[in-house]
Design a protein that fits this description.
- This protein has 394 residues and is of the alpha/beta class.
- It has 2 domains: 170 residues, Phosphoglycerate kinase, N-terminal domain (Rossmann fold), CATH 3.40.50; 197 residues, Rossmann fold (3-Layer(aba) Sandwich).
- Strands 5-6-4-1-7-8 form a 6-stranded parallel sheet, sandwiched between helices. A 6-stranded parallel sheet has the order 11-10-9-15-16-17, with helices on both faces. A 3-stranded antiparallel sheet has the order 13-12-14.
- The longest helix is centred in the first third of the chain and has 15 residues.
Length: 394
């Protein structure tokens, strides 16, 4: 995919409207995880080095068109300043209006202004043209580095691009598109897909699109129990997405038709309740006894899944193998994370718990690509593009 990139244009003396994804967790006025802010640093530093001034914008949370103090981006301005070695980052108390425009227009080369949360205005998510026009009036050109929001036709992602002569993709978007496209275009075989977590229906489109490219599919978490039930096996009181069972049956039928290697867990860790102090043990088979809850893949499943990882040349992983938030039920997820890190093959990981697992296992630096946008990456793998990416093509 040929994108217009920031290296295709000159930015000296230009005021750039930079859309980033600073949707980060904030507790008691402090940023708790700065991963997404760090991901935007290469683009920010490049533009500043080119002599640009930056009007930086992002959303945070779901304030539903109202100003919610707990969802203010002010703590993000402070964190960004810290990550840039103490460089000043101005903060605007809104994302539009006369005062904001005045502050933006007074920026000198090398200066930055972070706008308040775009979603404090409902027009952002509505893709309102007037809202996009007011945002565009703050700058001379446009750069998007918010991959995690590119699947939305929001005003600052989609509509705004029509209002600038110069638009481009930042380094993060380029990196994401390159890695995900590699999964879609002639991935090295064998190609292993690992699916865990929940939200089965959200992943079905992506799974269907990748079935023609993968060789092996292994499952864990709620995803696995949905497939186990689709096989008409006993799942006890395990969490399952009943509405997605017909979809799971479709996938199983297609997998069999294509003669793909497909695994649900050979055994499970089961518990009498979802709690760290619950009574839990490993089953001897791939079914779950009545009234018990499947909370992780069992030791036999871990062994089988690691064997699949060792045989793979390309790996895509989305979603944990169990109830990852509870330490006792995170062992399967962590074992797979370690194995993928040690595999030394092209690997792409998406989903918060999967990313947390590779970080905890200390192998994040050995993963080829870690996706910053869960929903956006799934949609890209389903459709091969996104609305916010389409408008940045050459």
């Amino acid at each position: 995919m040929e994108l217009k990139t920031i290296e295709d244009a000159g930015y000296a003396g230009k005021r750039v409207f930079l859309r980033v994804d600073f949707n980060v967790p904030i507790e008691k006025g402090e940023v708790k995880d700065d991963t997404r802010i760090r991901a935007a640093l290469p683009t920010i530093e490049y533009l500043l080095k080119q002599g640009a001034s930056l009007v930086i914008s992002s959303h945070l949370g779901r304030p539903k068109g109202k100003a919610v103090p707990e969802m203010s981006l002010k703590p993000v301005a402070e964190k960004l300043s810290s990550l840039l070695g103490g460089k000043e980052v101005g903060f605007a108390s809104d994302c539009m209006g006369d005062e904001v425009k005045k502050s933006a227009q007074s920026l000198k080369a090398g200066e930055m202004l972070l706008l308040e949360n775009l979603r404090f205005h409902g027009e952002e998510e509505e893709g309102d043209e007037g809202f996009a026009r007011r945002l565009a009036s703050l700058a001379d050109c446009y750069v998007n580095d918010a991959f995690g929001t590119c699947h939305r036709k929001h005003a600052s992602i989609y509509g705004i691009t029509k209002l600038f002569d110069s638009t481009a993709a930042g380094y993060l978007i380029q990196k994401e598109v390159f890695a995900l496209s590699k999964l879609l275009e002639n991935p090295e075989k064998p190609f292993l897909m690992i699916l865990g977590g929940a939200k089965v229906a959200d992943k079905i489109g992506m799974v269907k699109n990748l079935l023609g490219k993968i060789d092996t599919l292994i499952t864990g978490g709620v995803m696995a129990y949905t497939f186990v039930q689709a096989k008409n096996w006993e799942i006890g009181a395990s969490k399952v997405e009943h509405d997605a069972v017909p979809l799971a049956k479709e996938i199983i039928k297609e997998v069999n038709k294509r003669h793909l290697e497909f695994h649900t867990p050979l055994d499970h860790i089961i518990a009498d309740r979802i709690s760290a102090d619950s009574h839990h043990f490993a089953t001897e088979r791939g079914t779950v006894p009545k009234n018990w809850i499947g909370v992780d893949i069992g030791p036999q499943a871990v062994e089988e899944y690691i064997d699949c990882i060792k045989r793979a040349k390309t790996i895509f992983w989305n979603g944990p193998m169990g109830i990852y938030e509870i330490e006792e039920f995170a062992k399967g997820t962590e074992a797979l994370a370690k194995a993928i890190g040690e595999a030394g093959v092209f690997s792409v990981i998406g989903g918060g718990d999967s990313i947390a697992a590779v970080n905890k296992a200390g192998v994040a630096d050995r993963i080829s690509h870690i996706c910053t946008g869960g929903g956006a990456s799934l949609e890209f793998l389903e459709k091969g593009t996104l609305p916010g990416i389409e408008v940045l093509k050459r």
